[in-house]
Amino acid sequence: MLWANWTGTSTVPSLALYPHQWSWDSAFIAIGLRHLSPLRAQLELETLLAAQWGDGRVPHIVFNDAVPPGAYFPGPDFWRSATAGRRAGAPGGVQTSGIVQPPVHALAAWLVHRADPGLSRARSFLARLRPRLAAWHRYLMTARDAGGAGLAAVLHPWEQGMDNSPCWDGPLSRVEPADPGAFRRADLDHGAPGDRPTDTDYGRYVRLAAQYRDQGYEDAGRDGTRRDPGAFSVEDPAFNALLITSEYALALIEAELDGTECRSSERRERARALTDTLVARLWDPARALFLCRDLRSDRLIAERGVTGLIPLVLPALPPAVTAALVRTARGPHFGLGGATRLVPSYDLTGPAFDPRRYWRGPAWFNTNWLVAKGLRLHGELPLADRLRAAMLDAADASDFAEYVDPYTGAGRGARRFGWTAALTLDLLRKEEVRT
Fold first, then answer.
1. Span 278-294, pLDDT tens digits
2. Which of 102, 184, 219, 404 is least enclosed by beta carbons within 10 angstroms?
3. Which portions of the chain have biased composition (kind: Basic and acidic residues) (predicted)?
4. Looking at the whole model, is its pTM more than 0.85?
């Protein structure tokens, strides 16, 4: 199915529902593709990073001009990257969105390199990607440091990737929804309304994106200047944990290219310092979970999402925090190894839990892959192996669904989904994902 979703330069997540190139989808897809075709995995990342903006941001969508305009909303006519993003350095030769997604790309690039180092060196794969990855990280650590503490902020739920999570309900409640008559939701042509975000939530997404576009995609932390964080500005644990993980990977890339530990050791030190900041800013000992911080109120958001478990991927996490996270994953809120087959996207006991609706309860393969990676990293091998087996079973039984019911494994959303297939390949290879 990864061949069927291949456009010639990249892989679409879903031929019908998501017919363009998505940023973190492509990173996860490259991680799986490296086992079948290291060359194609390299092209996947090169295509995405070729659309990078001058300020360093990697857009969350790279649009395919061959796709009919009405096939996806919001499309290129909404984002207007070439005009609205001109000051931020939007590329002229390709149309993109103006927001970002989690920075998994350096991790993916390192793993793709390791799949065939000879091919990678012959094509100067890492040498060509390194400056783009470094600029991407620099953008997140400077222009997106809206809170001033060193963590990157997301300015839209789509940026964090877990679009419809109840973690966003509080900040989103400040946003007036766009007029429903001003846009048409193409996603409802391919998914049951009961599985998708509500019209009200979607109207808020559209409003936020339009406001960011109309201000020229200007960021609150640019040039070290603190500005009003806006209606939605959140420090998210998963987004920042993946940035830290990719910092470690970029350290390995620099050591490989430079043949010296000098610059790479500086990156590792930065990654460890950011881990300390993540714990100081987002760890809630009472809930034994990382939480999101609403920068508008400067308070933690009291909702338990799978985003709070993703920092398990960090090697320098304090042992007491790691142990508490594992207990939380196995406890009543997520049910890992007990009540659930896969880790749900939201608290099983939470008032907004829904096993069907997008990111409000269903289990996703990329977040479960990351949790399994973290469990293995910290020595929780039996639990990691059980999760791996459950993921393989669910992927096969659901025809590689976009997401599944965490209790039953029943498929939801799109089928033959890109990163589900790719990460299944990675799990079948039984290779540990280490940085």
1. 999 999 999 999 999 99
2. 184
3. 182-201
4. yes
Q: How many CA atoms lie within 13 A of 173 on its CB side?
A: 6
Which residue out of 46, 201, 256, 402 is catalytically annotated?
A: 402
> Which 3 state secondary structure label does DSSP give 308?
helix
Structure tokens at 110: 């390192």
Structural domain that includes position 203: 21-426
Active-site residue, 163 included: yes
**Calpha distance 300→375 (Å, rounded):** 25
> What is the C-alpha separation between 358 and 56, in angstroms, rounded?
30
CA distance 341 to 363: 9
Hey, is 411 helix, strand or coil?
Answer: strand
Residue 85, domain member (yes or no): yes
Q: Where are the beta strands (DSSP E) in 285-347?
A: 289-290, 293-294, 299-300
Query: In 10 A of CB 298, how many CB atoms?
Result: 10
| CATH classification of the domain holding 405 | 1.50.10.10
Structure tokens at 22: 């998505």
Q: Are 282 and 243 in contact (CB under 8 A)?
A: no
C-alpha span between 214 and 199 (Å, rounded): 22
7 within a domain of the structure (yes/no): no
Residue 79 included in any domain: yes
Separation CA 343–CA 337 (nearest Å): 9
Total structural domains in the chain?
A: 1
Residue identified by tokens 């509080």 is 170
Q: Does a structural domain hold residue 2?
A: no
Q: Which two tokens stand for residue 67?
A: 């796709």
Q: Which of 163, 219, 303, 405 is catalytic?
A: 163
Please say if 431 is a catalytic residue. no
293 close to 278: Cβ distance less than 8 angstroms = no
- Residue 296 confidence (pLDDT) above 60: yes
Rounded (5°) CA angle 172-82-19? 65
Sign of the alpha-carbon torsion through 46, 47, 48, 49: positive
The predicted-structure confidence for 198-250, as pLDDT tens digits, reads as follows 889 999 999 999 999 999 999 965 555 555 667 899 999 999 999 999 999 99
The predicted structure's pLDDT at residue 435: 40
User: Cα(139)–Cα(58) distance, rounded to whole angstroms?
Assistant: 9
Angle of the 237-258 helix axis to the 105-115 helix axis, nearest 10? 40
